Amino acid sequence: MNNIYIPSYNRSNQVRTYEYLEQGYIVVPESQEKEYRKKYGKAVLAIPDDRDGSVARKRNAILDLIKEKTGSGWMIDDDLECLRRKKENTKISGQDALEHFERIELMAKDGEFMFAGFDYSGDNMKLKDMSPFSFNKIFFGCVYVDARDNIKYDERFSICEDVDYFLQKMERHRRVLKDNQYQAMFFGEDGGENSVIRYDQEKQKEFAKIINKKWGYGAMVWKGTGFRFYNPIKGV
Predict the structure, then answer these.
(1) Whole-number Å distance between alpha carbons of 205 and 197
(2) Per-residue pLDDT, 135
(3) pLDDT less than 50: residues of the chain
(4) Residues 6 or more apart in contact with residue 76 via CB below 8 angstroms
(5) CA–CA gap between residue 82 and residue 24 (Å, rounded)
(6) What is the pLDDT at residue 193?
(7) Which residues of 65-102 are buried (b: 16+ CB within 10 A; e: fewer)?
(8) Distance CA 115, CA 109 (A)
(9) CA–CA dist 65, 23 (Å, integer)
(10) Which of 92, 94, 139, 203 gives 117 a disulfide partner, CB atoms 3.0 to 4.6 angstroms apart?
(11) For position 173, what pLDDT does the model report?
């Protein structure tokens, strides 16, 4: 597959997603290109530093690459460890994951979905045996995106930009494709004080308020120790 893009920053020592899939473009700022190339060689794709600098800005640069090259493709965070088949609790190989990406991509194209992805929860109660796919549920981190609708990430968000992007896709197209049968499992470095992104729960709550104000609805609601996500788009 030549349509996998892996945004990365300050992780030249280990890009887990590339090591799992053994494919993809590792997208980094030019100032970090040499360091990444020492280990990952031609897999590294550099963008100008001024097109990096925030997650939303970098994702928009990747959307432009996708639109220019193939029109649609995969954007996968750099710490993907594996896909897990939830019912059997089986972590599938990188090669099997690539084959499943191709299946989801075909389904998206056949069904004219502009956005697709996998469950992020390991809770098997959310498997929904009678609903292996959802058309209005949120997903993160490992996404298939058709960039030809020109929807962009809102660069006012330094975090929670993926929630806003999902809502934009839902508002425009009225549906997305989520595979409930597989969990995209990440290493989970981001979110801590020593992480690349460096945000904590209070920062996340701050941007959740901005999300909710923008959409006029409680799309991100703090419950207990985490957020619940609700779809504010009526009629989907």
Answers:
(1) 15
(2) 94
(3) 190-196
(4) 4, 5, 6, 17, 21, 24, 141, 142, 143
(5) 15
(6) 41
(7) bbbeeeebbbbbbbbbebbbebeeeeebebeebbebbe
(8) 10
(9) 17
(10) 139
(11) 96
CA gap 34, 39 in Å, rounded:
9
pLDDT tens-digit profile of 37-75? 999 999 999 999 999 989 999 999 999 999 999 999 999
Count CB neighbours of 180 within 10 A: 19
Write down the pLDDT at residue 68.
95
Name the DSSP letter for residue 217: S
Cα 25 from Cα 98, distance rounded (Å)? 14
Hey, what amino acid is at 34?
Answer: K
3-state secondary structure labels for all residues of 57-125? HHHHHHHHHHHHHCCEEEEECCCEEEEEECCCCEECCHHHHHHHHHHHHHHHHHHCCCEEEEECCCCHH
Burial class (CB within 10 angstroms; exposed 0-12, middle 13-18, buried 19+) of 14: middle
What integer pLDDT is reported at residue 113 of this predicted model? 98
Q: What is the pLDDT of residue 232?
A: 76
Q: What is the DSSP letter of 202?
A: H
User: Where is 166: in which H helix or E strand?
Assistant: helix 161-173
Q: Can you list the domains of the chain with their CATH numbers?
A: 4-187+198-229 (3.90.550.10)
Cβ neighbours for 144, distance < 8 A, ≥ 6 positions apart: 72, 73, 74, 101, 104, 105, 108, 115, 116, 117, 177
